Amino acid sequence: MEFNATLLISSISFVIFVIIMNQILYKPILAIMQQRKDYIDNNKLAVDEHKKHAQMLIDDKDKKIVEANKKSRDIVAATVESLKAEKSKMLGNTKSEMNDYFNSKKQTIAEEKDNTVNNLAFNVADIANNITTKLVGYGVAFDPLSEAEVKEVIRKNA
Question: Could you tell me the pTM of the whole model?
Answer without folding.
Answer: 0.46
